Amino acid sequence: MPDYSLELAAGGRVAGVDEAGRGPLAGPVLAGAVVFHGAPDAALARLLDDSKKLTPVRREQAFAALREAARSGRATVGWGAATAAEIGQLNILRATHLAMWRAVRRLGPVPDLALIDGNMAPRAPHLLPCRTACVVKGDGTSLSIAAASIVAKVLRDRAMLRFDRHYPGYGFALHAGYPTPSHREALRRLGPTPQHRRGFAPVDQAALLFG
After folding, report:
1. Which domain range does residue 12 map to?
2. What are 113's strand-pairing partners?
3. Residue 89 placed within a domain
4. How many folded domains does the chain comprise?
5. Transmembrane region positions (predicted)?
6. Binding-site residues, please?
7. From CA 195, how far away is CA 185, in angstroms rounded?
8. Residue 196 pairs with which residues in a beta bridge?
9. Is residue 34 within 8 Å of 77, Cβ to Cβ?
10. Could you tell me if 113 and 12 are in contact, meaning their C-beta atoms sit under 8 angstroms apart?
11. N or C: which end of the chain has fewer CB within 10 A?
């Protein structure tokens, strides 16, 4: 289970940062950023874990608890997105860094350090406005990163539900844009939407068929 030891060891204002949606063929990539103002209380900490390990109901509960922590001043929560169009223009890695930059900027005062899940943190100053440190499997290690992973996942899933209403027939509510067999079949049958990511082979192949 994640804990707060990395944040305490680092000292200062420490943000956890994580993303959701690097692998899909459609929709934005979302980043979450969370700063706790002191160690989270036990009730909140029990709700936090790697978002992939949580059920949708548990993720929503954790997200609601994070929003309450933000309202009460116990945490600051930020999020950022890079659109499908930006992903097509920049590539998915650079677009992910852009989403992270936007998420961190929403925190208000820039943190002293961003703990980023994974092993490919953006290091150039223009990619993130503070020092960074990679934490492999950080969403299962750091409470701040776990919280950020929940923010990113919940907000991205909500966006894909909206797109499902706008673009019926693709099943966005079911697969969230990931390249499932049913999604690939819908692409071949209906062609890409504006929410599909150009530069991803299945999308580009479908676009050729539909002109």
Report:
1. 5-168
2. 14, 131
3. yes
4. 1
5. none
6. 18-19, 117
7. 16
8. 26
9. yes
10. yes
11. C
Structural domain includes residue 29: yes
Q: Which residues are annotated as a binding site for a divalent metal cation?
A: 18-19, 117
Quickly tell me which residue has 């673009």 as its tokens.
167
Which tokens belong to 71? 């309202």
Tens-digit pLDDT profile for residues 57-81? 999 999 999 999 999 999 999 999 9
- Rounded to whole angstroms, the Cα distance separating 174 from 185 reads 14
* Structural domain includes residue 184: no
Is residue 48 a part of any domain in this protein?
yes
**Dihedral-angle region of residue 133 (phi above 0 means left; psi in -120 to 50 means alpha; beta otherwise):** beta
Amino acid at 79: W
- Per-residue pLDDT tens over the stretch 129-168: 889 999 999 999 999 999 999 999 999 999 999 999 999 9
Residue recorded with tokens 């797109």: 163
* Separation of alpha carbons 21 and 113, rounded Å: 23
